[in-house]
Amino acid sequence: MRINVICGGESGERDVSMSSGTAAVQSLLELGHEVTLIDLAAELPILAGPLRFPAALPPYHVPNNPPDIEQQRLWRRNIAASLLDEEVLACLHDADMTYVAVHGGWGEDGHLQSWLEMLGVPFTGPRSDACSAAWHKARALAILQVASVPTAPRVIYRANDPVAESDVRRILGDGPAVVKPATGGSSVNTSVVRGIEELHLLDGLAASEGELLVESYLSGREFTVGVLGEEALPVVEILLASSLFDYQAKYQIGAVAEVCPAEISSEFSEQLQEIALRAHRALGFCQYSYSRIDFRCDADGMPVCLEVNALPGLTPGSLLPLAASRVGLSYSQLTERIVDLGVGRVGGALAARARG
User: Fold this and answer.
1) pTM score, two decimals?
2) Cα torsion at 127, 130, 133, 137 (round to 10°)?
3) What pLDDT, in 10s, does the model give residues 88-130?
4) Which of 9, 10, 131, 193 would give a disulfide with 110, using CB separation of 3.0 to 4.6 Å?
């Protein structure tokens, strides 16, 4: 097949996305596909290709810190220009499939998927509606709560909002709270606060982000469950050396211990997998997409859903590839499986139109 891999993007997860994208390119080349690498946020968006032989690209190593988000405005201008560029449009239309590896920002909130849908370009991963539903954490958690997925007490905080501050004080009355942007991923700008004074230190972040999600800190074990199509993958436990699974811990190999399958009872494993599938479906993810659902347990050991990741990290050291390896899928086989799901969605849509 002729496959475009889109990575990079304009969010704080840009470097993670570059790592996912270059790793996917190598795998697809090894599988015999013709591949073009695209970063819509770059000055010259077509980075390489069409490539036909493995080892054409070096691996991309994620730096210790997120990229300088001050460049976001420029990156967004570049994306808008790239999506109107004749060469890029021809590349998208000429390919059999577009492999989306853009984490965060416009790659995960539904912007990019909406554009590809309007162009009629087949792509991997969730559709725009599922991405949009999962992107805003508080809204997604509200949907999950209705679907009987356990969630933590939470509130949306805005700087200089006395009502929100009063709600936060109630949460802090029961102990520490986790504060994170209401949108975004990879634990960028995530912290733990123990009092309202510490929260006010984040008012600058609240002003720049617009909204922060404040939720009760959970002191128990941390798990994640990947869903591939309609299959819940083996549970991964993240053994933390600190209170949070932060950016550095996520992307520096060896920074934390990740145990898969998690050393838990079969009953608890099945419970986490069942909740993960429920969350996956509640937000509109279909049998042709994939996701990763993060959990943390409370002091009593009960699992609570933290969020659903629409386009989870696919670096060689990421959690979804780790879980897939435990059901016999190498990184290359996982990449092929993701492409196959995208192909299946195209076939399903054609079949539905034929029936109509």
Assistant:
1) 0.89
2) -100
3) 999 999 999 999 999 989 999 999 999 999 999 999 999 999 9
4) 131
